[in-house]
Design a protein that fits this description.
Elements lengths: L1 H18 L1 H7 L12 E4 L5 E4 L11 E5 L5 E7 L5 E8 L9 E7 L5 E7 L5 E5 L3 E3 L1
Antiparallel strand pairs: 1-2, 1-9, 3-4, 4-8, 5-6, 6-7, 7-8
Helix pairs in contact: 1-2
The chain binds zinc ion (ZN).
């Protein structure tokens, strides 16, 4: 799938950012075609802009996470420090939180309402975990 391969590529570049942010910054002007700053991440259902590749964040050592909920369903998601296209809904709860010390709420597309992932708060930093199969990049 195009969307998935796009996100995997973003992830590898993000790891570079984390390990050597200075070096990546210098390289970016030559890397305009795949520059994260130009990659908009949009809702797969309605194409509403959700976040940007340059908001990608590494949480507990990884941008991308795979977690299982109490019902045994696996979710593959990526972390972003902001997602202005998301509407955060529901009460913050620490129940079954995948990230120790964090509360979570649902994060939905503010346009079509599709559940896109979760907003994790109460720790440092707060972040969005957004489902890879609900988003695509542009
Ligand atoms: Zn949407």
């Amino acid at each position: 799938m195009i969307s998935e391969s796009g996100l995997y590529r973003t992830r590898r570049k993000d790891i570079g950012h984390v390990h050597d942010p200075q070096a990546i910054k210098k390289d970016q002007p030559e890397d305009s075609e795949e520059s994260q700053e130009s990659s908009r991440i949009i809702c797969l259902s309605c194409k509403h802009p959700i976040t940007h590749g340059d908001s990608a964040l590494s949480v507990m050592g990884s941008h991308q996470h795979t977690q299982c909920n109490p019902a045994g369903i696996f979710f593959q998601f990526s972390c972003y420090n902001q997602a202005s296209g998301c509407l955060v809904t529901g009460e913050a709860t620490a129940e079954f939180s995948w990230f120790p010390g964090y509360f979570w709420q649902f994060a939905c597309c503010s346009d079509c309402g599709t559940h896109l992932g979760w907003f994790f708060s109460g720790g440092k930093p707060n972040f969005f975990g957004l489902l890879n199969n609900k988003l695509t990049s542009q």
